[in-house]
Design a protein that fits this description.
The chain has two domains: about 180 residues, no CATH class; about 100 residues, 2-Layer Sandwich (Alpha-Beta Plaits), CATH 3.30.70. Helix content is about 75%, strand content about 10%. The protein has ten helices and four strands; from the N terminus they run H-H-E-H-E-H-H-E-H-E-H-H-H-H. The protein has a four-stranded antiparallel beta sheet with strand order 2-3-1-4. Helix 2 runs antiparallel to helix 7. The longest helix is centred in the middle third of the chain and has 42 residues. The radius of gyration is 31 Å and the shape is rod-shaped. The relative contact order is 0.17.
């Protein structure tokens, strides 16, 4: 029975070309929409991580001290839980940074006394929120030879609030697109199966079981889903290439992420075709009149 179902599934896909194209096109559109939303959310997450890292920088300004003590504090900062990276900036390096940023006007404002040595700390994303950073800065401030600890608290609060709102909007749009896509695919497949109602009725009249009738349509739906997935991946790849050509700042995902995304899209296409065909045929068989 399985070889028969597979054979009839391919035959039905070729025979009912219009309905197959309609169902495949609907699934392609659905997968492209869902895929683009997923990529946009991935890009938004990358941007949010970048922003969090930018506002999650803590600078420890040191009192007058020796290089050995400063380097010891640097090592201590590196060993602090939640610290990803710590850079020691000596007074001489601070002077060079100041001159680079202010250019020719640096000498007018330059005063060596207000350029202390410092340690710039980059915090892990999991620690980039107000409570953790407040606790961390309090610990740094308690150390000997530390004059001041600074991080941009107002900007952190603002960024966190904006990212939360954007995440909620992204999830809401994603869910809306997903349900709209499922509705579009389900109705298209239902219309495609309705176009072959006479064939289904004939099969039932000669004694075919519901399972026997459903299997070729499920195979056909899976074929449509695979083709739709491949088409959707190609369209998304073209869109990604075009967009990154104009906006090169957008990062490209790693190979593992690409493979995971492709596998998820392929699985999603198969499930759309399978479940859509299964439900459409089941409903039709339930309501079909044999007299």
């Amino acid at each position: 029975m399985i070889p028969y179902s597979i054979k009839e599934g391919f035959t039905g896909f070729r025979r009912a070309s219009f309905s197959s194209v309609a169902a495949t096109s609907a699934m392609t559109v659905a997968l492209v929409l869902v895929g683009l939303i997923a990529i946009m959310m991935w890009q938004a997450n990358s941007v949010s991580e970048w922003l969090k890292q930018r506002v999650g920088e803590v600078e420890i300004f040191l009192d007058e001290t020796t290089d050995d003590v400063a380097k010891s504090l640097h090592q201590r900062a590196m060993a602090t839980p939640g610290v990803v990276e710590a850079d020691y900036i000596s007074k001489a390096e601070a002077q060079e940074i100041f001159k680079t940023e202010f250019g020719d006007e640096a000498d007018v404002f330059f005063d060596e006394s207000f350029l202390p040595a410092s340690i710039k700390v980059r915090v892990a994303p999991a620690y980039i929120h107000s409570d953790s950073l407040n606790a961390m800065t309090a610990e740094f401030a308690s150390w000997n030879r530390v004059d001041e600890v600074v991080f941009n608290r107002p900007l952190l609060v603002k960024v966190q609030g904006n990212l939360k709102i954007l995440s909620m909007i992204g999830v809401a749009i994603g869910v809306l697109v997903l349900f709209a896509s499922i509705f579009l695919v389900a109705n298209t497949i239902r219309l495609a199966i309705y176009a072959r109602r006479l064939m289904i009725r004939t099969m039932k009249l000669v004694g075919a079981t519901d399972s026997f009738v459903r299997q070729p349509f499920i195979v056909e739906g899976i074929i449509q889903g695979i083709i739709a997935s491949l088409l959707a991946l190609f369209i998304i790849w073209v869109v990604h290439v075009v967009v990154t050509a104009y906006v090169p700042q957008l990062g490209s995902p790693e190979l593992t992420s690409v493979l995971l995304f492709s596998g998820t899209m392929l699985t999603g296409g198969i499930l759309l075709g399978w479940i859509g065909s299964e439900n459409a045929v089941r409903r039709f068989l339930k309501n079909i009149a044999l007299h």
